[in-house]
């Protein structure tokens, strides 16, 4: 069932420019409502205005710019409340903040907004290429377990990805409704509903005597584990921390990703036969030993070295790295320990990305005042718009075009910047310096690759032009989300994945952030699965 709102009073103008139409019929085979026909006498397409809903796919993908669609989008509007509205104080709160679908009827209505596009751009926008339309069709048919199984063909950690992905720049940003200027189908919320209300299991398609070791237990590792188990491969995971999940554990607060959600995924793997070794650091020397004992070794240790800015006096200041902060204080919230160490304190967070927002929001839950500074223009900031909105709603003071230049004891020297071009670094306004007192400085400028495991770096070749499939889909239109061109962003992600692949160094395969630097959870997961596929193909 697809729900459209045909309003005869809606302003409508559809036209096929006959002198441009070459009769290729690309638009005809991709129209989701069968509104386009073909005139064999004139050898041009024709548009039925009554069936046309104004999604504009035909206009976006026409290689000859032969179609003009000027019509208000006539798909029923979403009934979901997509804005975070906290109830009461957030002090020590672990309640999830992202709005959720709470009933099957609501899920059914939202899934029914899907156009079931013949060439779905949402699939291209998803780094894992989940078959979203088919999963939603199963949901509409009342088969929630079936919907989950469709997602699991490309991702077993939908319960995690649905909570932490930046859908606005991935699947939802590439949704045909969003490309048409409307409100996308809430794919993330639907995926979350499906995984939270269904049962899934790991299907063993074959049995083998192969053994694979995986170093690290983050999203890339989890993606590889599930795929290898399906092929009957014996898997052992080596994690240097005393907890599993990597950045998915204490790197993401419970109000974003509940620990129970991650724990359920890990227990599913443990039950299926994965052996986890915690508090086990693997050096470069031991890596060679593992290679001798296993058929393959996957290195999935992530990008774990914090980026430290050059700030005068920072070494003597009371400062801490973002991940150390989240591990330490996230534990207090998780265990409901009233942590008064930060209560009433004023904290400066250097950075305003997603990790910085996590730090600031944890600080607010421990009763601290949080100030986040970022020297770029807000239009160019690498932060999820919803995460930024939620942080500000919770009282975080976010200052863009502001940065830290010096510290002296509790005194911080801040300065304003100018920034009008995302391809260039901001310029500091020397005359704008001012000082402010803070009890703690948290560095949250991101991470880079590092560690004592050395592998040959892959060679990047990013000059590839979009394939005909991508060009013809219409995803490469000039649709923006938070200053990002959705199609261009998706294609850049795709060609990077193709260029990098999985670096195999004599049976030792690097994946995820350790391979190509900091990326997203779903990209890391997909990288792990790709490595597993390579191992399986070689068995």
How does this model look, in words?
It is built from 19 helices and 23 strands. The strands form seven sheets. Strands 7-6-5-8-23-22 form a six-stranded mixed beta sheet, sandwiched between helices. It has a five-stranded parallel beta sheet with strand order 10-18-11-12-13. It is globular. It has four domains: 12-71, Alpha-Beta Plaits, CATH 3.30.70; 104-196, Alpha-helical ferredoxin (Fumarate Reductase Iron-sulfur Protein, Chain B, domain 2), CATH 1.10.1060; 211-303 and 449-458 and 501-537, 3-Layer(bba) Sandwich (FAD/NAD(P)-binding domain); 306-448, FAD/NAD(P)-binding domain (3-Layer(bba) Sandwich), CATH 3.50.50.60. It has 539 residues and is α/β, with parallel strands linked by helices.
Mean pLDDT: 87
Rg on CA atoms, Å: 25 Å
Largest sheet data? 6 strands, mixed
Number of strands: 23
Estimate the helix proportion, in percent: 25-40%
Any low-confidence stretches, pLDDT <50, length ≥5? 1-11, 456-463
Discrete helix count: 19
Write out the strand line-up for the largest beta sheet, numbering strands in chain order: 7-6-5-8-23-22
Task: Write out key terms for the chains shown.
alpha/beta, single chain, FAD/NAD(P)-binding domain, 32% helix, disordered N terminus, Fumarate Reductase Iron-sulfur Protein, Chain B, domain 2, 539 residues, 5-stranded parallel β-sheet, Alpha-Beta Plaits, 4 domains, globular, 6-stranded mixed β-sheet
């Amino acid at each position: 069932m697809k729900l459209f709102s045909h309003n005869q009073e809606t302003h409508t103008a559809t036209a096929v420019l006959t002198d441009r139409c070459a009769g290729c019929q690309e638009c005809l085979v991709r129209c989701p409502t069968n509104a386009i026909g073909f005139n064999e006498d004139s050898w041009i397409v024709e548009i039925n205005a009554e069936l046309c809903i104004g999604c504009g796919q035909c206009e976006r993908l026409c290689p000859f710019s032969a179609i003009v669609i000027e019509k208000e989008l006539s798909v029923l509007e979403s009934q979901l409340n997509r804005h975070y509205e906290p109830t009461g104080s957030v002090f020590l709160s672990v309640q999830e903040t992202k709005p959720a679908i709470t009933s099957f009827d609501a899920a059914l209505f939202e899934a029914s907004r899907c156009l079931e596009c013949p060439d779905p751009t949402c699939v291209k926008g998803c780094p894992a290429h989940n078959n979203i339309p088919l999963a939603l069709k199963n949901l509409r048919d009342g088969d929630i377990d079936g919907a989950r199984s469709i997602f699991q063909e490309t991702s077993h950690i939908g319960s995690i990805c649905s909570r932490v992905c930046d859908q606005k720049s991935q699947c939802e940003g590439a949704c045909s409704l969003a490309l048409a200027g409307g409100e996308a189908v809430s794919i993330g919320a639907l995926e979350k509903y499906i995984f939270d209300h269904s049962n899934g299991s790991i299907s063993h398609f074959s049995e083998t005597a192969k053994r694979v070791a995986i170093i690290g237990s983050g999203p890339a590792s989890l993606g590889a584990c599930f795929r290898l188990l399906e092929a009957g491969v014996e898997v052992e995971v080596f994690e240097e921390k005393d907890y599993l999940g990597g950045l998915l554990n204490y790197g993401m607060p419970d109000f974003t990703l509940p620990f129970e959600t991650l724990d359920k995924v890990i227990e599913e793997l443990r039950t299926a036969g994965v052996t986890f070794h915690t508090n086990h650091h693997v050096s470069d020397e031991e890596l060679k030993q593992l290679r001798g004992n296993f058929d393959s070794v996957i290195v999935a240790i992530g990008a774990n070295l914090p980026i430290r800015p050059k700030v005068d006096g920072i070494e003597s200041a009371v400062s801490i790295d973002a991940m150390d902060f989240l591990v330490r204080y996230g534990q207090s919230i998780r265990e409901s320990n009233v942590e008064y160490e930060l209560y009433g304190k004023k904290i400066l967070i250097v950075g305003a990305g997603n990790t910085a927002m996590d730090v600031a929001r944890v600080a607010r839950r421990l009763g601290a005042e949080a100030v986040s500074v970022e020297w770029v223009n807000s239009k160019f900031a690498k932060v999820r718009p919803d995460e930024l909105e939620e942080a500000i709603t919770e009282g975080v003071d976010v200052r863009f075009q502001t940065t830290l230049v010096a510290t002296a004891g509790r005194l911080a020297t801040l300065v304003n910047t100018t920034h009008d071009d995302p391809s260039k670094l901001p310029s500091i306004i020397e005359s704008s310096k001012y000082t402010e007192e803070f009890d703690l400085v948290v560095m949250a400028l991101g991470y880079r690759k590092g560690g004592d495991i050395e592998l040959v770096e892959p060679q990047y070749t990013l000059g590839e032009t979009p394939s005909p499939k991508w060009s013809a889909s219409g995803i490469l239109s000039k649709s923006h989300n938070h200053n990002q061109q959705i199609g261009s962003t998706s294609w850049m992600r795709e060609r990077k994945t193709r260029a990098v692949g999985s670096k195999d160094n004599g049976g030792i395969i690097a994946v995820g952030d350790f391979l190509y630097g900091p990326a997203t959870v779903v990209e890391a997961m997909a990288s792990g699965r790709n490595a597993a596929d390579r191992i399986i193909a070689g068995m």
